[in-house]
Design brief:
By secondary structure, the protein is an all-alpha fold. It contains 14 helices and no strands.
């Protein structure tokens, strides 16, 4: 029996939620059939999710003060996996089965967790957390550009092309292109943009290979994070030295980044998709750079120039345009 056609994945805030892309197809399908209400109103959960993911870039920055970037990424997937494994144990749900499924999860883990988490951590060694959060918002733009080539059912429209152009104009505004990008670390910014590019590549891969795979979103994502933990453990052992101390705040930041930003937040997102649908749930993407910038300025004392919020607003407007769909024509 062939797998059903996968619905278009929701937008995942990349640095904070890429693992969810593995399970998006299952969650989206469930959303149309069932509307479950959480203990808290969905607007409250939406706000909490925005704050948790928005603060993820600050937590990465603090974590890199004491740990190597690969170690920050390792701690993130490790504590995220532990959080989801706990949920699976409570629910008595099994992990995915089959070598083929685990093979695809291995590639998905590399594209959606191991590579982008590491790249964002390396980026924040030299760029502000606020800039990393804004670079993260370019992920829908990369996704739209890639979908024109890789996904034949995603037909381009003039509005979506305009959104793509507008979004990258916003990136140039954030980076101060008219000043020759002076004051911006090119390497760190390139790492952050490359991390954002990893997500849509991963989503396309997941959409082509894991659509219709048996298992709940939590089980698929938990398995993916477990694989990513093994990948990053190997990379960390090869390229970094074991930490000699565990400072309080960097350690707590890494734990929170994994347990809250990758574990609890994914659970919350699945509930939102089920209750209010993927279109509304994905709107959290547009609040993340605002919160990331605010947190960076107020908590870490990062400098804010006029082009940063203006450029971020342009990026988000462009990203929103790339996600619009032409309504089907009604028969006469």
């Amino acid at each position: 029996m062939s797998a059903p056609a996968a619905p278009r994945p929701t937008l995942e805030p990349p640095s904070a939620t890429p693992a969810a892309a593995t399970a998006t197809t299952s969650a989206t399908a469930t959303a149309g059939a069932t509307r479950r209400r959480g203990l808290l109103d969905w607007r409250v959960r939406f706000a909490i999710l925005s704050v948790v993911w928005g603060f993820s870039f600050l937590l990465i920055k603090v974590g890199t003060e004491a740990y190597a970037p690969f170690q920050v990424a390792l701690g993130r997937v490790l504590f995220g996996a532990l959080a989801l494994m706990t949920v699976l144990l409570v629910r008595r749900e099994p992990l995915p089965r089959g070598l083929r499924t685990w093979g695809h999860l291995t590639v998905a883990a590399l594209l959606l967790n191991t590579a982008p988490f590491s790249l964002f951590a390396y980026a924040e060694l030299s760029i502000p957390s606020s800039l990393a959060g804004i670079c993260n918002a370019t992920s829908p733009l990369w996704g739209m550009a890639l979908s024109l080539v890789a996904l034949s059912e995603d037909r381009p429209t003039r509005r979506r092309f305009a959104g793509l152009g507008l979004g990258f104009l916003g990136v140039l505004t954030v980076l101060g292109a008219w000043h020759g990008f002076s004051g911006v670390d090119a390497k760190g910014t390139a790492f952050a943009l490359l991390a954002s590019l990893c997500y849509p590549i991963g989503w396309i891969y997941v959409r082509r290979t894991l659509a219709g795979t048996p298992g709940s979103p939590v089980a698929l994502t938990g398995g993916q994070l477990m694989v990513s933990t093994l990948q990053l453990a190997l990379v960390s052992a090869l390229f970094t030295s074991a930490p000699t101390s565990f400072p309080l705040w960097p350690t707590l930041s890494v734990i929170a980044l994994g347990a809250l930003g990758t574990g609890m937040a994914l659970q919350m997102q699945y509930g939102l998709v089920t209750e209010v649908g993927p279109t509304t749930a994905q709107m959290v993407t547009y609040f993340i750079p605002v919160i990331a910038t605010t947190a960076g300025v107020l908590v870490l004392g990062e400098q804010l120039h006029w082009n940063t919020p203006v450029g971020a607003a342009i990026v988000l407007a462009g990203a929103a345009l790339t996600q619009t769909r032409t309504a089907p024509r009604k028969p006469a």
